[in-house]
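User: Could you walk me through two proteins back to back? I'd like the raw sequence and the structure tokens for each, with a short line separating them so I can tell where one ends and the next begins.

Assistant: Of course. Protein one, sequence then structure:
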Amino acid sequence: MSSNQRLQAPLLSALLACGALTAVNSAHAHQVWLENAGGQARLHFGEFNENLRETSPGRLDQFKGVPALEQQQRAGAAAQRVEGQLAKDAFVYATTGTPDTLFAAASYPLIDRSKRNLPAMLWQPSARWVASLAKPVAPTAPLDLVPTGKPGELKVVYKGAPLPKAKVQLAAPSGWTREAEAGEDGTVTFVTPWKGQYVAEVKHSDKTPGEVQREKYGEASYVTTLTFVLADGMASPALPEPPKAH
């Protein structure tokens, strides 16, 4: 090996590690969210407020299969499992009737952090859609974000208990965002002046080691979204143009 090659080898290794870390951080920064209209639900992966939707072939293929959708027709009713399929820019599902709530949890491979001498990390993105904020919804996911039934009020729940001080970000139909911190009871309240689709997001990290499908991890990172559509309000500007592909 020449002297130049010896000098370049550590640099190449560092660049490869940096690239892998960037890919991990990029996926970790993303969210999944549900949209529902005309008898079809769509589970997107990307950034709602930036109008970014990952596609297939591409990063949408990184998930471990097509997530199942849980459809609940009304509060207290048993959830129905709906199988979906992979489309160009979303996982798509045929919904029936007029569901009160939809929920999906996407399975992602454990994130390898061995290059930083850290144990693997479980990244668990999930999404909920509700027909109305006027009806309270019972949480079902480890990290859940649900309406309480009061105007503009949402509640963050982790493993069945309110999660104080959780940061909740709300993206308006235009992509405009605001953040609020949950109180001791896990609730946040937002003003929603525009009509159209909103997507709220909450994240939480749990450093308790665990195991999923016989694979061990040292930390779990959750991101959950809640989608709702308001029929009344001021007309909202459109979402920004999607980012250009590199």
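----
Protein two, same layout:
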Amino acid sequence: MPRVLLIEDDPAVREGVELGLRRRGHDVRSAATGEAGLEALSEFRPDLLLLDLMLPGMNGVQVCRRVRENSQLPIIMLTARGDDFDMIVGLEAGADDYIVKPARPEVIEARIRAVLRRIEPTDTERPATRVHGDLTIDRAALTVTKAGRRLALAPSELKLLLHLSAAPEQVFSRQQLLEHVWEHSYHADARLVDACVRRLRNKIEDDSGTPRYVQTLRGFGYRFGPL
């Protein structure tokens, strides 16, 4: 089972989430502050980080940015209701998904599995490697290079790119992308998609303001070029 690092300052929430995950077979390490969590990160070597947004001292956004400096570890933000602005900042910092507290253990477990499925090898029926301009996507190795330089993509960014590039020129609505990439079958917040698109564009486009690969069709959604 995946190893999970939980950074949460509320003792009741921390103990509840930790107990629920352990009952489902996870190896869990927890920390009450961002600083302690970063120390545990290198020692524990988790498969996924559950990160509270509102932490004392170093907050969740700062922790997320620090992790993303040298790691593409899957990150799920834990947010309280009403933290919309901070949640978007967290997604922009590199989080792959978010969960609104309080959340049932089975919901947390389902989100963990969904995020981790984004870094599993894709199906072998499609060509393993596709070249789009200066962008090379290896679907088997789950690597992306631009002009020969390997890009570091977070799990949600990689899965989004794989999904869009599998059907060039096809337009996908935000709801379709939520269902296929994030596996959210309900009408989730479309800002999750928009934040991921912005992060992806910053990495694969020459000019994220005039994107060549991930294009917006206003009122409809996104499609993959290049044109």
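The longest helix spans residues 191-204.

Let me know if you want the two compared in more detail.
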